[in-house]
Each structure stands twice: as C-alpha cells, then as structure tokens.
Amino acid sequence: MSNTIPKIGxxxxxxxxxxxxxxxxxxxxxxxGYSISNSYADADLVxxxxxxxxxSAVEESLDAIxxxxxxxxxxxxxxCLGAKxxxxxxxxPSVLAVTGPxxxxxxxxxxxxxxxxxxDPYTDLxxxxxxxxxxxxxAYLKISEGxxxxxxxxxxxxxxxxxxxxxVGEVMQExxxxxxxxxxxxxxxxxxxxxxxxxxxxxxGFWNGRPLKTRMTELARAxxxxxxxxxxxxxxxYPHVDEVIPLMADGLILxxxxxxxxxxxxxxxxxxxxxxxxxxxxxxxxxWREICPDxxxxxxxxxxxxxxxxxEFEQLLEFMTDAKIxxxxxxxxxxxxxxxxxxxxxxxxxxxKQERLGRFMALQAQISAERLQQKIGLTMQVxxxxxxxxxxxxxxxxxxxxxxxxxxxxxxAGLIPGDLVDVTILDADEHDLWAGPA
Length: 438
Ligand code: SF4
What we know:
Elements: E1 7-12, H1 16-31, E2 35-37, E3 45-50, H2 55-71, E4 75-79, H3 87-91, E5 97-98, H4 104-114, E6 138-142, E7 144-145, H5 156-160, E8 164-165, H6 168-180, E9 185-189, E10 204-207, E11 210-213, H7 216-224, E12 229-232, H8 244-249, E13 256-258, H9 266-272, H10 281-291, E14 296-303, H11 310-323, E15 327-332, H12 350-373, E16 379-388, E17 391-395, E18 407-409, E19 420-428, E20 433-437
Parallel strand pairs: 1-2, 1-3, 3-4, 4-5, 6-9, 9-12, 13-14, 14-15, 18-20
Antiparallel strand pairs: 7-8, 10-11, 16-17, 16-19, 17-18, 19-20
Helix pairs in contact: 11-12
C-alpha cells in the first residue's frame, strides 16, 4: 500500500452558509488524513464549493469550475449550484461528481471514489461494507435513527431521540457496497421507514452525481436499480405508502410490507397514540391487494392494552380475519419502565391477557395456513439461506429472515447460500412451505 498522502484542492465561493459547509468538508478531509493543497497543479483533485444565488454568482461558479478543470482536470462540484439540476453538467460534462449544499457525506463519498482515503491502521481492517452480523447474502440497511412519535407503550424516543434520517447518498453508497460484497437481499429498517426524510424536509441528496430525494418511495426506487431483493420493514400506514405498492406490482421491490398496526380499535389506537391511527386500514389493505395481489403483509399487535374491552379485542380478531394478515407477531401488553401507558386506568389482568394472546395466535396460525395452502402448485423464486448436507432452507419474497417462515427445498444438490432459484411449491403447514425444482 502506498503511503503517499492524497492532496485535495479546495475552492469556495458564496455566502457564510457555503463557508460553513466548506469548513465541515475541510475538517472531514483533514480528519481522514487528506492534506489540503494550495495549488491546482499539486492537487489529486479539486472540490469547488459553488454559489447559485444570482446569475452573476452562477457565472462565477461555472468559471471557477472551468478554471479548476483546465488547471487540474479532476473536479468535484458541491454547493448551491449543484442543486440546480443539470446546469453544471451541461456546461462542464467532465466533472467527476456534482452534489448540492450541506452534502458533506456525498462529497466525501465522491472524494473516496476518486482519491482513496489514506491508509488508516485502525479502520482499514474493516471492509467497505462494514462489519456485519448477518450472513453474507442478506443485510439490514438502516436508513434513520430515532422517532418523532410518542406511542404511549414505547420508550424508544426517550432513549434514541427524535428522527434523524441518514443522507440518502450515504445510504445508497452503503447499499452499493453491500451488493458488491455479495448481498442478494437488502432489508430496509428504521423505527419508522415511511417517515424517512421528514426531519430534513425530504432534502435532495445525490447518488452517483444524480439528485435523489430523501424519501421512502424515491429510496425504494433507487435501491431497486441495484438488482437485488429489497424488503421494507416498519412502514406506517400513511397515505403516501400507497406509492410503493405499484413498485411492488412492477417487481421492482419485493411485494412485502411490514406494517406494525398494533391494534384495530380506533379507541385503543388513539390511547396508544399510534401514528396514522385515523386511517381506514382495512380499505387501504384492500386497495393494496387490488394493485398488487401477491403482496404479503406482516404486522405486529399488542393484546391486553390497558382498557381493552372484550368488544375491542373481538374487533381486533375481526380485522385479522378480514385483512388476512399473512404474518403476524403478537405480544401481551406489558409495562415498560418509563412508558406513559403504565399510568392508564383499567390494566387488563394477566390471565386475561394471556387468554387473548392464545386466541389471537390460534387465529393467526389458521389464517397463515390458509394463505400458504393457496401457494401449493405455484412456481416462485426463492433465496437459499443455508445448506447442510441434504437440508436446504430458503426463503420466498413472503419470508423475512428470522421472523417469518421458510421454504424447505427437496433435491437442492449443488445449491449454496445466496443462490436464487425457481421452485414449485409442493406442500405447506401453518408457517412454512416445502418445494421441489420448478
Ligand atoms: S412504537 Fe411508536 S414511538 Fe416507538 S419507535 Fe415505533 S412509532 Fe416510534
């Protein structure tokens, strides 16, 4: 490995906000061991921080980019002008990358791509896709941290704070690295995936020089370009979730939606302070199934929430029957230290909670069994998870790892984990399928 320290040239134009962006980029460059060059000739590449406020500023910025290209040739453009669509690329098509303002991560990603980071004995032991605890062929992709909701049974916001969305360029870069390292399935996770970008007003980020909104639908569509399975978890039933269903119907992302409904009674949902509690979930589900008949719905529910009456519990069972939720987990409500729901009146006795949980799970098993019976005879693609002698275990689009069922394969000789194969479903029980070669 070469010990040469890469030198980055830096040109900054524009207002104080642009300067503060510049400072952040310069600080990060220095922190990562790059040195800053004072001359074009000496630099490995040049970052131009532009301004696009008025026409003369646009001119000045375009001239500065032209000068850097002429003197050095390798230029990354950031700042306000970068946010103005294709202006930069139309005039200077040879720039290496274009990002908008406040785009520290995107600029650093572009710098890393074109002038690799100096060797660091601590972090260079870590592969580009990071250290992962999942098998080689699937990976969780965390898109945000924290949550803006205040569900009364939950203490996550007090532990992790409000929603902070990761820059979309950084998320996409991580996804690309994962796919390059052999990942065949990306599982998008967060506390509230449908809220992605709300905290930064769906800011436009950049991926490979292309503008991309920090928003669930746009992210899902961009991820689909990586040609791997994309599965969405923890999506709340906000109206804009309807936008991702056509992507599923078109085969761009997996027809699988993990929607934690938690209950069906409007009064209980209100007491839980659930996001999107006013939505008519049954009508939404019917509409989703019209657009994408193959969709698998997974959800979680809480039974025995304080004040839950017999009628309200029956309402939940009725919802399960009507909505035909394919996969469901349920918990008997239990008080978590610090949760607001602890103070609610009419806590349900433990024995009754357990009885309700038993009834819920029995109904769920019956629904799941009926749904899986309908798959017998169908041909579908599965992803091989493990191969141990003759035992080959795979998953279909309907099965998220660890929480859903699996597909046991007969005659799986020669398969290895990560293989995608077409199989025909031969048999089913309450949660799992058995399949043979298609
Ligand atoms: S349960 Fe509610 S408050 Fe807790 S993380 Fe989920 S949406 Fe946020």
